[in-house]
Amino acid sequence: MMFLLSSAFVFATAKMRFIYLICNFLHTILLKKKHFDCLRGSIMTHLRKFVSSVPEYRRTSRGNFKHKLEDILMLVILGRLSKCITRAEILQFGKHHLKRLQAKGLFPYGLPSEATLCRVFQSIDDEKMADRMSAFADFFRKEISTSATDIICIDGKAMRGTLYENGRNPDIVSAYSLRSGFTLATDVCTEKSNEIKSVPRLLDKLDVSGCVVTADAMSFQKVIIDRIRDKGSDFVIELKANQRSLRYDFLKKHYPDGEYHAVYESGFSGFSTYYALQEVGIDCIVIHAADVPTTQYEETMKTDKVDAVKLVKSLKAGLLTGIYIHKRDDIDARAVVRLRKTIQKQLGGYKSRVKHLLHSNGWFSPNGFPNLAAIGRKFSSTG
């Protein structure tokens, strides 16, 4: 038996990813509910407001439909929360709890068919649904993150198993709140778009003032950096070594009046980065890791991104004092001196081993090994 999946069915499957994000978000809320002061009433009340805010795309004036869009969304979300994956499992969940759903005013004419679910998620507007989800999530984030600076992590992922008509995988760019632990907003890249164009649209959906925005090297673009700065937030964006056009020349060209400072912890990398930054005019300091002020949260959630943000905040507040670094010529001379001392210590060890070998065989060498060659010939002739 052969099954043929139409492009409409595959793309409708992709729409379920938004429901998956909502369910992850609700799981986080349920785990942290005791910490919420904003939950006036049940989570179900807030969820009903969310699904009712998603705009109806069908012609409701004609009266040719039985099920409300908000009822269908509610069924899918509750099914996903109950670990139902496929549409058949979600409908089975609805049949099992149909009386309870109808007691809440849902599905007065019974459950929809699996084909109806497919058509609904094929035609629903991704952008409008993502905007409603952003507003839904932002309500809770503000209640959690009022007392501390939040870190917003932006990244894009390709949706495997889903294709546009041109054969390309659609990309979804997401903004994740590190402090609250859930996704705040998403943006779908269109067929002829990419992550660079999607990140500014994603930032427009969020209130990131006072936050630190992190992103990968693809987001190191003038339009993105300007958008982050205009919204009153700081940024930590990765810059790869092979991106020569995006190095200091880029900053100097587009932000000629800016002051640039850098900081990193001393370690195995040495001071080559320090000298390279100083040569292009960037003020850089190297600090000892133990001298960085660290909170209990930063010790528990220790990652490279968290450490980078910690250094930026401490540098901005003037809490860091760099270690003393010699000039590059002095560093080379000191390395030669250290190497000479190391060789001297190793030479003393080799002499002690030779002495031990001779003493253990009954031969006593004079101090300084003046006639070591003669002793060796005598030892070999009698051996």
Outline:
This protein has 383 residues and is an alpha/beta fold. It has helices at residues 7-31, 43-53, 69-81, 87-96, 98-103, 114-123, 126-144, 195-204, 222-230, 248-254, 272-279, 296-300, 304-316, 328-360, 372-382; strands at residues 151-158, 171-177, 183-188, 212-215, 234-237, 261-265, 283-287.
Describe this protein's structure.
The strands form two sheets. The protein has a five-stranded mixed beta sheet with strand order 3-2-1-4-5, with helices on both faces. A two-stranded parallel sheet has the order 6-7. Among the domains are: 139 residues, no CATH class; 67 residues, no CATH class; 54 residues. Helix 11 links the parallel strand 6 and strand 7. It is an alpha/beta fold.
Note the main attributes of this structure.
7 strands; alpha/beta; 383 residues; 5-stranded mixed beta sheet; disordered N terminus; 15 helices
Number of continuous helical runs = 15
Count the E strands: 7
Oligomeric assembly: single chain
Name the helicity range: 40-55%
Topology, please?
Layout: H1 7-31, H2 43-53, H3 69-81, H4 87-96, H5 98-103, H6 114-123, H7 126-144, E1 151-158, E2 171-177, E3 183-188, H8 195-204, E4 212-215, H9 222-230, E5 234-237, H10 248-254, E6 261-265, H11 272-279, E7 283-287, H12 296-300, H13 304-316, H14 328-360, H15 372-382
Parallel strand pairs: 1-4, 4-5, 6-7
Antiparallel strand pairs: 1-2, 2-3
Helix pairs in contact: 1-3, 1-6, 1-7, 2-3, 3-4, 8-9
